[in-house]
């Protein structure tokens, strides 16, 4: 219970003399070196008001009979059932024990002690208050630990939904931050954090949040203070959680023996926190990293298989080889600019990989024809959207069902002039609208070499077709990033984007 200056005790009684005597007895009393602060209510209604605005009350000394014969009992019920103040200790005091028999009251109400006023000498009052404060402290610690565990459980489920290492690292740091904020002593503190990986080559930054992100914690040890380096090195060597000064750091190791360190730094000295809870959280973090690595291996394997599939298909094409790969990267970048959630970004990667799968249903003769096509050939070519949908739509998996919709709709236009269904606006799947843009940028730029597809020309084209061929919301987000899109179309490396996706 660090950080407090005193223990709040609420005296609820309609007799002023009882307040004066109780406060006199408790005036010199201390528990764990902290004094008692008495709050006063002369009715149950006044007590409700105080309890509603002052949640940090440890003990209530509660009279039974006040404005009504059961006012105290009704207040006790309100405290537990409506205010949900389960840690607060309730000591019932009555001058009329016949009005509220002890055994009946203890059985029916969640109170912690029952005393007759005539038996409460100064010694007995101090004894019952000290024991109640000790009980309050213990129950409060249990409730904090319970809240910590709930935070770990909720946070862990979110960690398993992350698809990039950078986002996973930042998500872990944010969960670590939230876990500390469960403690009232830390709820108003500002934290900055960094996650690091240790391997045979050294210690490397995985991600950062707060001031560390803006302050450029990108390279270890260059960007770190001596204090930060010391605690990081100590945690790495001792493989345990450490709290020192403004810093708290924890160690984790994954199933495949990847070692990691998380460091949070507050805006002031940190009080003692339960390092066992932090260590437990680090175990969940290691499992999340293992899950990420396994999922990444599955995704990379899937993508490699798709790449091989398209290499086979593209041997039949006379045009635009490498188109699917480029649309994949351009679409992925547009999704990044649109700040799609991780799950939607993953679906976009699936859908862009399969958007032209219907070409397998067209004849070699059709696929060998140069562009632009004749009207009759174009009608034949348009069939690839229906063929792709038919191939994918029978799957029960959500990713392939989305890919089926995109394969069908990726030639639909915002104004309803596309094909095959003349869909418009919001009728078109959101991912199909993204792939529509990427598809056209790559296809036109690679198949119409006589056109001047310079950056200004592409910008002018996108603005012209916004609201016609393309979703205006998509164009608005990408129009200032056409230079990077052109690099992706021309299969040049884009370092800034790659760093963001890691």
The main pleated sheet reads as: 6 strands, mixed
Number of helices: 20
How many separate domains make up the residues? 3
CATH class of the largest domain: Mainly Alpha
| Class per helix and strand makeup | alpha/beta
- Would you tell me which CATH topology of the largest domain applies? Hypothetical protein af1432
Binned, the helix content reads 40-55%
How many distinct beta strands?
A: 11
- In round numbers, the mean pLDDT is 83
Uncertain runs: 495-502
Please indicate the percent range of residues in DSSP E strands (runs of 2 or more).
5-15%
User: What is the CATH superfamily classification of the largest domain?
Assistant: Hypothetical protein af1432
Question: Mind explaining what this structure looks like?
Answer:
A hairpin with a 5-residue loop joins strand 10 (247-253) and strand 11. With 502 residues, the chain is α/β, with parallel strands linked by helices. Mean pLDDT is 83; it is low at 495-502. It folds into 3 domains: 7-143, Response regulator (Rossmann fold, 3-Layer(aba) Sandwich), CATH 3.40.50; 160-290, 2-Layer Sandwich (Beta-Lactamase); 316-501, Orthogonal Bundle (Hypothetical protein af1432). Helix content is 52%, strand content 13%. It is elongated. It contains 20 helices and 11 strands. Helix 5 (122-159) runs antiparallel to helix 6 (165-181), helix 10 (323-337) packs antiparallel against helix 11 (342-354) and helix 14 (383-392) runs antiparallel to helix 15 (398-409).
């Amino acid at each position: 219970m660090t950080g407090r200056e005193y223990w709040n005790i609420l005296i609820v009684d309609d007799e002023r003399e009882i307040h004066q005597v109780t406060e006199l007895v408790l005036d010199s009393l201390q528990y764990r070196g902290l004094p008692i602060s008495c709050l006063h209510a002369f009715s149950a209604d006044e007590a409700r008001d105080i309890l509603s605005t002052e949640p940090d009350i440890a003990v209530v000394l509660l009279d039974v009979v006040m404005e009504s014969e059961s006012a105290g009992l009704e207040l006790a019920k309100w405290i537990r059932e409506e205010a949900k103040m389960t840690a607060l200790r309730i000591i019932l005091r009555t001058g009329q024990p016949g009005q509220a028999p002890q055994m009946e009251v203890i059985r029916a109400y969640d109170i912690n002690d029952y005393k007759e006023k005539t038996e409460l000498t100064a010694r007995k009052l101090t004894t019952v208050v000290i024991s109640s404060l000790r009980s309050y402290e213990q129950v409060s610690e249990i409730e904090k630990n319970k809240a910590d565990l709930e935070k770990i459980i909720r946070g862990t489920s979110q960690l398993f939904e992350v698809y990039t290492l950078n986002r996973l690292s930042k998500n872990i740091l944010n969960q670590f931050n939230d876990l500390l904020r469960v403690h009232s002593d830390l709820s108003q503190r500002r934290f900055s954090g960094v996650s690091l990986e240790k391997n045979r080559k050294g210690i490397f930054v995985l991600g950062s949040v707060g001031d560390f992100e803006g302050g450029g914690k990108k390279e270890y040890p260059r960007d770190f203070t001596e204090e930060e380096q010391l605690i990081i090195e100590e945690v790495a060597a001792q493989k345990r959680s450490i709290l020192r000064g403004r810093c708290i750091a924890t160690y984790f190791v994954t199933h495949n023996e990847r070692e990691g360190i998380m460091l949070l730094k507050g805006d002031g000295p940190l009080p003692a926190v339960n390092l066992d809870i932090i260590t437990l959280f680090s175990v969940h973090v290691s499992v999340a990293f293992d899950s990420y690595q396994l999922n990444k291996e599955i995704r990379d394997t899937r993508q490699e298989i798709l790449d091989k599939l398209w290499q086979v298909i593209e041997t039949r094409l006379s045009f635009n080889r490498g188109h699917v790969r480029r649309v994949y990267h351009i679409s992925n970048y547009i999704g990044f600019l649109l700040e799609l959630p991780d799950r939607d970004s993953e679906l976009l990667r699936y859908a862009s990989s399969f958007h032209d799968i219907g070409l397998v249903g067209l004849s070699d003769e059709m696929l060998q024809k140069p562009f632009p096509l004749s009207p009759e050939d174009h009608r034949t070519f348009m069939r690839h959207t229906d063929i792709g949908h038919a191939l994918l739509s029978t799957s029960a998996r959500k990713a392939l069902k989305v890919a089926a919709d995109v394969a069908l709709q990726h030639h639909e236009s915002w104004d309803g002039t596309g094909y095959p269904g003349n869909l418009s606006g919001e009728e078109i799947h959101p991912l199909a609208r993204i792939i529509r843009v990427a598809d056209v940028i790559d296809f036109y730029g690679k198949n119409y070499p006589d056109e001047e597809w310079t950056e200004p020309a592409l910008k002018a084209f996108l603005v012209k077709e916004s609201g016609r061929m393309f979703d205006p919301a998509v164009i608005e987000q990408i129009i200032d990033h056409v230079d990077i899109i052109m690099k992706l179309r021309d299969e040049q490396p884009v370092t800034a984007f790659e760093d963001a996706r890691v």
